[in-house]
Design brief:
Layout (H helix, E strand, L loop, with lengths): L7 H24 L5 H23 L7 H25 L5 H8 L2 H12 L7 H18 L9 H26 L5 H24 L8 H34 L1 H18 L5 H18 L1 H9 L4
Helix pairs in contact: 1-4, 1-9, 1-10, 2-3, 2-8, 2-9, 3-7, 3-8, 4-7, 4-10, 5-6, 5-7, 6-11, 10-11
Length: 305
Amino acid sequence: MTENRIPGRAWIDLVLLALLWGGSFLAIREALDEIGFLSAVAHRVLWASIVLWVLVAVRRLAVPLSLRVWGAFFVMGCLNNVIPFSLMAWGQLSIESGLTAILNSATAIWAVLVAALFFADERLTMRRVIGVLIGFLGVSTAIGLQNLASLELRSLAQLAVIGGTISYAFAGCWARARFQEQSPLVAAAGMLTCSTLVMLPLSRAVEGPFELDLSLSTWTAIAYYALAATAVAYILYYRILAAAGAGNLLLVTLMIPPIAILLGSWARDEALASGAYLGFALLGAGLLVLDGRIGNAARKARPAD
């Protein structure tokens, strides 16, 4: 496969994944109208883990029994689900779903920095430094640094979402270090199972008994973000990764915010400040620099000697 070339089937999967993840921000916000943010996360990881274990059984995949492997699943569950899902769900109580999706795009920026700390082959090149700096400028613009001076609830909510993206970045490094030999489906099911074991007692301790007597609209939202945007999305994610590579998979990060913004505006009359859109544009530019597409395009456009 030539550099940056994406097979046609992978493009379809990319668009579908962006639609699923883009819609998850609205679905989570809808569920938060009736249940607490920790309960929302508990529902997400519980039902998604059940679906994935059914698929593991259908495909007759080997299930690891080693405590070391399950310990790795537990750490991954905390880094990739418990911490970021909880921080972002709490943040969505005070900020728009579209802005949450924009800030979520910073995951790839943090991933570059965190990977450089742990892996020798992920060192910071000049291109990556430039991409990271542009990305940070985008995050700062989207948040509005002047809004952090008072540290009001809205500002704290935005920082919580950023904290979730940092946790995602560490999760990526943990997965690379510990899950090279694991089936992606088994790893995802194990991770979500460990997340469930954390979230069920945590949500009960903070928000009371796990609630099942919910309205139809809340169950619809839960079904969407737990089954479609988590269980199905993980399957699509790994399929795209295998077909198009990690660099092309970054494109989904740029496709998610517009979907989340449109859905939030349509369903909840959300309106974002102009700085949020400018910040997203800068974040997108930073991601494309990190991916190498901007540099490659410039080299191709340069006249031959």
